[in-house]
Write a structure and sequence with these properties.
It contains 24 helices and 16 strands. The chain is of the alpha/beta class. The strands form five sheets. It has a five-stranded antiparallel β-sheet with strand order 4-3-7-6-5. It has a five-stranded parallel β-sheet with strand order 9-12-15-8-16.
């Protein structure tokens, strides 16, 4: 065999094995589409290699041309499969471009099998000697204009690779950018190598087969990494389930799991030890059949009420042992819920109190010990179920990252402060006007911290009634107040090991603020109506659109809590102070909203961007997003237009230039004199209720920045 034949055979074998591997993997996983698309692409490349090798052995022009439709079919299948694979993995490919490439590829195959689109008229079979001495056949003749259909399909795939690479780069997705960028370079080089052959300058073996081989290899590596990560998460889920099972098997309490039909599905060894049954005698049996005859009807009805959502928390039941003796068992029942909140059964934990009933004075002590043990079991079970749910959701859900867009100095300074504080456990206070994106900053701090694998829970202090906010933060015990029909964990407990984000913390009632201060200082909380101290490991991030210093001076916020929150302050600038970021935000929102509303958006008129940059944006980024969404819905012809005009920013209305020599001050000089006059009237005070910042209507940090720009030394 010649070297080129060996290369084609090796390519076909490798791609066929990769395709079969992905087909087998698709049978075992839930998310089959990426595996099936990668299998189709690999098998298509394998088929292309086989037909290209057959064409190398052609002895007549007719035999050579007979193989070309089949190679076109394989190339088209590879292009379509890879295009849809990229769209599925990145969710960034434009739908119009994707369907356009698919349609061109299908049209190429149809034309190639019907009329032939390579050449017109007679063709001749020639031969070419390769640098290493191998001779390969080629045909020459008049090029068919329809051949451009296939070329457009291949160029369309190149555009998909380029567009997706740029979009992933803008989102700082390093791994995906490298994969797509490498595939783009490989494919582009392959296309460049085809051009001389198509023009008849040289006759070389087509390199696209080997370019597709490398792209398929990169695609398989991408999927393999995801499968490895999913396998690791699955092992963690299994490890948690093993720990839960070991706990049930070793605890000196009776434990039984019962399905909604009332049949026992699982019992622990101590259950069998106390009652004398074998496991096989209990599993599959209705649990009330081992209850004393006089209580069977009552227990069946109670179980049916439990499956309707009304379980009996504690009950004493007489159970018949295997030898006919009767045992008095005190049971605690816990409903088992699936990930959607539906009831999937009940877990019953029981203690044998037969002997203790002879000494009734011991009953209180036994029940106390039982309740403590059950609380511990429920706590462990709850924690393990939450961890399992989190891990299972991580296996099947793509990771979502918050994005903070902008290249202005103001937003870059905020990103710099995020990088400084994220790796620590310091408490962060984020301040800024409504709509500037304080929650995005909190998400970024959590994502870059060592707690990123833990939960990030957010509480909007302004959205909760003052009567409920304490229960939301610290939880409550059953019966703590009217309507508290069950115990509830607070956000501090649920966020343990992760981050708790308190939005609009300035809205906290004064009677709740000391409890928050204690939780921050001591790392412990107490549920409402409870007496036990609960340790929590939580990193706190707070946010407020108020000036908390002014709130402290007005007596609406505790000074000691303010200083405890202001360990590391970050002020997010309003949108009017970073107008250079507006174009980036507009394009980002427009692209996202156009995709969501299925609107084709192709043009951003400069006058629209100027209007947006000339507006004050009192509602900041949130208001900008709403304005852009209305404009996108109005873009019926692909051109972004504002639904209604925006008022120009104060001071930005164009004026004719003043004649030279009239003695007018510059704008900076006017600002300089006016700010100095206001500072003098405020005795040099910048912040606070009587400060210059409040009089001038700007944030204190904005005023300090303006002073520095104008060369004015801020008073101390």
């Amino acid at each position: 065999m010649t070297p080129l034949s060996i290369a084609y055979v090796a390519t076909a074998a490798v791609c066929a094995l990769v395709g079969l591997q992905h087909l087998l993997t698709a049978v075992r996983v839930e998310n089959r589409k990426p595996q099936l698309l990668s299998a189709l692409a690999a098998l298509a490349v394998a088929g292309d290699a086989i037909f290209e090798r057959r064409m190398l052995s052609a002895t007549t022009a007719e035999e050579y041309l007979a193989g070309m439709p089949w190679t076109a079919l394989c190339i088209a299948a590879a292009i379509v499969a890879l295009s849809w694979y990229i769209a599925l993995r990145t969710n960034l490919v434009r739908k119009g471009l994707l369907w356009g490439v698919t349609g061109l590829a299908c049209l190429t195959v149809i034309l190639d099998f019907t009329v032939g689109i390579a050449y017109t008229g007679d063709v001749e079979l020639g031969s070419t000697a390769l640098p290493w001495g191998e001779v390969i056949p080629h045909v020459s003749g008049a090029t068919n204009p329809l051949r451009t259909v296939g070329d457009m399909a291949m160029i369309g795939f190149l555009v998909i690779l380029l567009d997706s690479t740029l979009r992933m780069a803008r989102r700082a997705k390093g791994r995906q950018t490298r994969l797509l960028g490498g595939s783009l370079v490989i494919y582009a080089l392959g296309l460049l190598a085809i051009i001389p052959s198509d023009l008849g300058w040289v006759h070389l073996p087509p390199p696209h087969t080997f370019a597709f081989l490398l792209i398929v290899a990169a695609m398989s590596w991408d999927l393999s990494e995801d499968l490895i990560r999913a396998s690791q998460l699955s092992r963690e889920v299994l490890a948690n389930e093993r720990r839960w099972r070991q706990l049930l098997e070793n605890v000196r309490l009776l434990a039984a799991r019962i399905e909604p039909s009332g049949r026992i599905t699982e019992v622990n060894p101590f259950f069998c030890e106390v009652l004398g049954y074998e496991v096989s005698e209990l599993v599959g049996r209705e649990y009330w059949t081992i209850v004393a005859a006089e209580q069977q009807t009552e227990r069946r009805e109670a179980f049916q009420r439990a499956m309707a959502g009304d379980p009996t928390p504690e009950v004493e039941v007489v159970v018949t042992a295997r030898d006919g003796s009767q045992k008095k068992i005190v049971w605690r029942n816990v409903l088992l819920l699936d990930r959607d909140g539906g009831i999937e059964g009940m877990l019953s934990i029981g203690a044998d109190v037969t002997d203790q009933r002879e000494a009734e004075g011991e009953r209180d002590r036994i029940l106390t010990e039982l309740e403590a043990t059950v609380r511990e079991l429920k706590s462990v079970r709850s924690k393990l179920e939450e961890e399992n749910l989190y891990l299972k959701e991580e296996i099947g859900s793509p990771t979502q990252h918050s994005e903070i867009l902008g290249a202005s100095d103001a937003i870059q300074y905020v990103l710099h402060k995020i990088d400084q504080v994220a790796a620590t456990d310091a408490t962060v206070l984020i301040q800024g006007e409504t709509g500037v994106g304080k929650e995005l900053v909190a998400n970024a701090i959590h994502a870059e911290s060592e707690r990123s694998n833990g939960p990030l829970l957010a509480v909007n202090c302004a959205a909760l009634p003052s009567s409920l906010i304490e229960s939301e933060l610290f939880g409550h015990e059953r019966g703590a107040f009217t309507g508290a029909d069950r115990r509830r964990q607070g956000r501090f407990e649920l966020a343990s090991g992760g981050t708790l984000f308190l939005d609009e913390v300035g809205e906290l009632p004064l009677d709740v603020q000391p409890k928050l201060l204690r939780a921050l200082q001591e790392g412990t909380i107490e549920r409402i109506g409870g007496s036990s101290i609960i340790d929590v490991d939580v990193r706190l991030i707070a946010a407020s659109n108020r000036d908390l210093r002014s709130e402290v001076e007005a007596g609406r916020f505790r000074e000691d809590l303010f200083y405890r929150l202001e360990v590391y302050p970050i002020t997010v600038p309003p949108l009017r102070d970073r107008s250079e970021d507006i174009e980036v935000l507009v394009r980002h929102f427009a692209a996202h909203l156009a995709a969501r509303h299925r609107v084709e958006l192709t043009e951003f008129p400069p006058e629209v961007l100027r209007q947006l940059q000339g507006y004050d944006w009192p509602g900041n980024v949130r208001e900008l997003q709403n304005v852009v969404e209305r404009a996108v819905l109005n873009a019926t012809d692909g051109v972004l237009r504002l639904v209604s005009p925006l008022e120009a920013r104060n001071g930005d209305v164009p004026r004719p230039p003043e004649p030279v020599g009239r003695g007018f001050q510059t704008l900076d000089e006017v600002q300089h004199d006016h700010i100095l006059a206001v500072l003098a009237a405020c005795d040099g005070q910048i912040a606070g209720s009587g400060g210059a910042a409040k009089i001038l209507g700007v944030h204190p940090n904005t005023l300090r920045s303006r002073l520095k720009k104008l060369g004015v030394q801020p008073p101390k």
